[in-house]
User: Fold this.
Amino acid sequence: MKPICFFEKYLFSVLSGLVFLTVFPGSGLAAASAPLELAQKLQARYEETKTMTADFKQSTSVPMTTRKRLGAGKLVIFKPGRIRWDYLTPDRQVLISDGKKVSMYFADSAQMMVQPVSQYINSDVTYAFFAGTGNIVRDFRVLPPERKGDANLRAIKLVPKTEHPQVDYLHIWIDENFMVRRLEIVDHFGSITDLVFSNITRNEPVSPEVFVFTPPLGTEIIQQ
Assistant:
């Protein structure tokens, strides 16, 4: 039986490399206050980003319950196409794309699922951005945010132009240096996945070996 994947269900079906790696020169948030202008500048800077690393913290809340699912780990991107998410808590999980296939490893169930990128990308509204082929303005309607959040951060709302089976809309929050620090993903049932990024680096050397993962002996490999 396929295990419930913490990031597959609540993260990778929604994430899209929304450009939390972007830093722009300028005089602050007032230089790009309009949502569309801010999205355009985010996209322009993102296109200049070839590698990126970050720590992340994730929480997912579901309507009709006060319980939250929490997670934390590290993210590495090497465009084009190479992505690695390592969940360190609450359970060890690894998702890796080498540009051709996506592998998802779950330590608690000793299973690893493998599928072609062409198949996986249809379920992940955000993969194209991480892979280097997405475009915020092209793929999303850019709107004013429904809530502001932190007073020191500027927010915009993104709605997929093509209806997605799992994602209703997204919010992103950008700091005074035009760096995205928070990403919120809302599905059609009202569940909210909130990601906060820190310790971000961009365009630093990343070894291709980072995107090679061999699961422990005895792991069940499931080809999809």
About this structure: Confidence is low (pLDDT under 50) at residues 1-32.
